[in-house]
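Hi L.,

As promised, Purine catabolism protein PucG:
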Amino acid sequence: MTIEHHLHPPIAPPRRTLMGPGPSDVAASVLAALGAPTVGHLDPYFLKVMDEVQDMLRTIFHTTNELTLAVSGTGSAGMEACVVNLLEPGDKIVVCTNGVFGARMADVAGRIGAEVVQIHRPFGEVFSVEEVIDVLQKEKPKVLGIVHAETSTGAAQSLKEISEAVHEADALLLVDCVTSLGGMPVKIDEWDIDAAYSGTQKCLSCPPGLSPVTFSSRAVAAMDARKTKVSSWYLDMSMVRSYWGDSRAYHHTAPINMNFGLHQALRLVLEEGMENRYSRHYANHCALKTGLNAIGIEFAVAEDHQLPMLNAVNIPDGVDDAAIRGQLLKRFGIEIGGGLGPLKGKTWRIGLMGESSQSTHVLLFLAALEQCLLHAGYQLSPGAGVAAANDFYRTTITD
């Protein structure tokens, strides 16, 4: 019996303007790097690329941590790598949960047999240092985990005072920087963060597939003092760090071309300059906010805690969430995200990350959104959002 096979057409994805919660747009030079000739994972050329990736990640993390590398996997793999290496069965972790990704950190810890204590804030709110001090004094955990930039809500968490409280309690501080790294300051050394993880597909504007992580000397000492093996062989830093370190001991076949892409993406970040990059993200956030306010759309997060790269806004009453997002994608090729958890159907998540944080994206999105809203019967003054954003750029951007 012969099985007939029909040849599928080549991959030809549509060209989108990515303004959701990730991935973000990717520069042509990064895509070209992904298509460079593949070499072996122990080839001297690739080992040199690994060293340079580590060096650039240290700069972007604002750290001198020796154990800084790109985990082979997306941001969730970085989360799991940090959790499983810092915790053994029975160890206690306090997780600050105010969105989907705090809850995910708690889930990962629970699956390896850690004792998990969660403190909660409503989606879109952040934690005070007083709340953290209270739970640290009561629970005395080994680790406190918290999300710096909660992708599901658009809320930015202040960390410096919380870090001081964590170390006063002789605990380790674990931070989710998936959405913040490369778009707002992530000062690992200055804020005394013990372990942090991120992802390539947000403000670093590289396709998803790698997770930058960094560990302080205090975190490394805790890992070295473990009494049990790390529950994940693949993510065991005692072996992975030997591959990324001087011994170059084979552990797994790294995704070579993904690292080529990340190398180029990091080069672009550093070529722009960290402060310039932070300023760009903030300026485009402000322009978007000005334009949205002009058509009656408000942010879902308090002013003091708004993320510049992930703008969560309230959907106006009577407007169909999915219908508007569908029109934006179908008619204009623009992707934005919907709300998650209790915010589903109530908020839109508009990403201005890395390559997607551009004035052209802001103005295109506002024009497209106005048209979709008018078509849906929403009352607004046509052109008001675009005009307000343009006025912001005219009065604040000098070059």
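The mean pLDDT is 97.

Thanks again for sending the construct details.

K.
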